[in-house]
Amino acid sequence: MRPKQAWLAFGTLAIAACATSPPAPAPTSPLAGVSVPLVPMTQFGDGERTQLFFAVLEGCYRDGVPNEVVDQLLEPDPKTGWPSNFVWACPICMPVIQALDAYRARPLFRGLKIQRDTFGEGLPTDVTAALFSADGPTRQATMQALLERWIGDYLASRRLTETELAHWRAAMDEGRQQGMRCLESYRQLGGTWAWMKKCPSCEAGNGAGGGR
Predict the structure, then answer these.
(1) What is the pLDDT of residue 46?
(2) Where do the structural domains in the chain lie, given as residue ranges?
(3) Nearest to 69 by CA among 136, 160, 116, 139
(4) Residue 90 contacts by C-beta under 8 Å, 6 or more apart in sequence?
(5) pLDDT of residue 9
(6) How many helices (H) and strands (E) does the chain have?
(7) Which of 69, 84, 105, 148 could tie 77 with a disulfide, CB 3.0–4.6 Å?
């Protein structure tokens, strides 16, 4: 399957997972009764997913994010197994999750005398400490700032025109609407989603393009 076809297939599956009522699950399933109305994604598409993916992947490599930090960002919810710092099936969250997965599975660079698998020296100690904070809002605010920096740097390197930036802002706003509808439906599952008021990835994507 070609890359563009793969992303289109992923997008279809993600929206379907979030927008339709699931088949009757077992009584013990944490997904029982969860359904989300469909929001037309007229602006958000393959290009935005690709840019989000590479922005996060590049940011991880450039900063040299340690595996334990990636694992912390992707910490699974005990009920569902979904990454608890994200909104599963949100069209903005999913490319970010996939980029973190790809970075986590990175190989060693070949041909180096000293084994390395990334470029940077790691995140500042205060950022790392905040990502491991016992306070959930602190963790997610730090995660949002980190993602916003990575996405913002990537967009700046692309030298987007004002028209392209306007399209990005419209796409991110639509993606956030879809993600918030997912989040509202997941509150009944408890855990992190019970107190989340916003999606860190959605806010980062919007903030990086100058939208709020």
Answers:
(1) 87
(2) 3-19+45-208
(3) 139
(4) 14, 18, 175, 178, 179, 182, 183, 199, 201, 202
(5) 45
(6) 8, 0
(7) 84
